[in-house]
Amino acid sequence: MLRRLLLQSPVLCMAPAIVRAQSPRDEFDLGPSGVMSIQELEQEPVHVTLDQPYALTTNPRQRLDLYLPRERHRGPLPVIVYVHGGGWMHGDKADGAARLMDFVRGGYYAGVSVGYRLSGEAPWPAPLHDVKAAVRWVRGNADGLGLDPARIGVWGRGAGAHLALMLGTTANVPRLEGTLGEHRQHSSQVRAVANFFGPTDLSVLGRGADTPEGRLLGGAVRDRLGLAREASPAAHASTATPPVLTVHGTLDRVVPFSQAARLDDALHKAGTKSYLVTIDGGAHGDFGSSADDRLGALFDRELLGMDREVSVAPVIWAQR
Fold this sequence. Notes:
- Helix 3 (126-140) packs across helix 5 (159-169).
- The chain has helices at 38-42, 96-104, 126-140, 142-145, 159-169, 212-217, 225-230, 257-270, 292-303, and strands at 46-53, 63-69, 77-83, 110-114, 147-157, 192-196, 244-249, 274-280, 315-316.
- It contains 9 helices and 9 strands.
- The chain starts with 37 loop residues before the first helix and ends with a strand.
- Residues 1-25 have low confidence and may be disordered.
- It has a 9-stranded mixed β-sheet with strand order 1-2-4-3-5-6-7-8-9, with helices on both faces.
- The chain is an alpha/beta fold.
């Protein structure tokens, strides 16, 4: 059996976790899955806690998975929060396991993979309220878990990247904060955002109600332009936005590359740092690990304070 993390703190005193070996696949993301089997998790030098509630509800979607290194190289650890993709309709937080493991096993980071309510259950802004509550939970429990509440970064793919960007751009927008969980006195602010091919301006997608963004908004974008703008990270870019790394393929037919360009332009105009990495020939997630070094550089620079360059040189991707 996979052992749950045992701490003296009452933070993790909960019912036994439901451990899944498999998870529904994000059908939009052409990249490899991040799901790990129970056996694979047991072999990692990492303490794992699955299905920790963060919103004071029994909803299985409002839970997170926590990954802490068995051996730590420093004091309180910075945290990388992962938000899964799936067009706001599919996907599961189990997808974060392998993606976070490279960061956590080294002992320099903690990892958190967040679940959230999907559009079939609760439309906008419910998923944003969920991920904000999860970040507040991390910050509220940082002392007991040995985490640094001032060094939280967020990373997402597809729809998860959209939510990660909304975390980064709306920390000072009270109407989008929500009231979930017991840690409402804490901020949902993050220090860095990694956006892998996420939608950034829903107002220009212009597609119908039976599309991922239509289901998120509860109707066609053209009929909900105000809501679409509210749900667009590019519209909230400001000087308070933390550094953003965007990785996007030029052949993406799910989220057009123009969405990445719009965000990059908005961030530069706002005076905040934007790293746009173009995957020349890459589709929606279909570029393997070609940008992983840029991701590591972002978090090492912004969360560990290392003097690392985040290269924006284009990546030429050829499917093998």
